[in-house]
Write a structure and sequence with these properties.
- The chain is an alpha+beta fold.
- The chain has one domain: Arylsulfatase, C-terminal domain (2-Layer Sandwich).
- 34% of the residues lie in helices and 23% in strands.
- It contains four helices and five strands.
- A five-stranded antiparallel β-sheet has the order 4-3-2-1-5, sandwiched between helices.
- The longest helix has 18 residues.
- The chain starts with a helix and ends in an 8-residue tail after the last helix.
């Protein structure tokens, strides 16, 4: 199995598992990096990392941010509140956070999995001569 197909199948498995977990989806139609969908799975008592899954025209990118890295205002720290979604996305790197909009559509996770499946299948076409 090539490295590309391994990464794609690993990404698809992560996305399929993500649907069952409590996560937040963001969409950007018009950003400096083009259209994108971002899924955020927050760290909890069982997991020490925030997981950010980015889907865009370049493909799919997965980033993990340790739960103590995103900056929190002093009052959130004092009250024991977790970092905001915005601060986690900013810690994830070069994301156009100003263009991302939180989406609560119930069918969006299934649509994102279907999109990923199409991306996995398309690069592996077979030509018969």
């Amino acid at each position: 199995m090539s490295e590309y197909s391994y990464l794609r199948s690993e990404s698809l498995a992560i996305i399929a598992n993500l649907i069952a977990l409590d996560h937040t989806n963001f969409l950007a139609q018009d950003s400096s990096k083009g259209p994108m969908a971002v899924s955020l799975l927050r760290a909890d008592e069982n997991n020490d990392t925030n997981k950010v899954l980015i889907r865009w025209t370049e493909g799919t990118d997965r980033r993990e941010i340790q739960k103590d890295i995103p900056k929190r205002p002093w009052y959130r720290s004092a009250l024991g509140l977790p970092p905001t979604s915005q601060s986690i996305l900013e810690a994830a790197g070069d994301l156009p956070t100003e263009a991302l909009t939180k989406i609560n559509a119930p069918n969006l996770p299934e649509e994102l999995v279907a999109m990923e499946e199409r991306q996995v299948i398309l690069p592996f076409g077979v030509t018969i001569i």
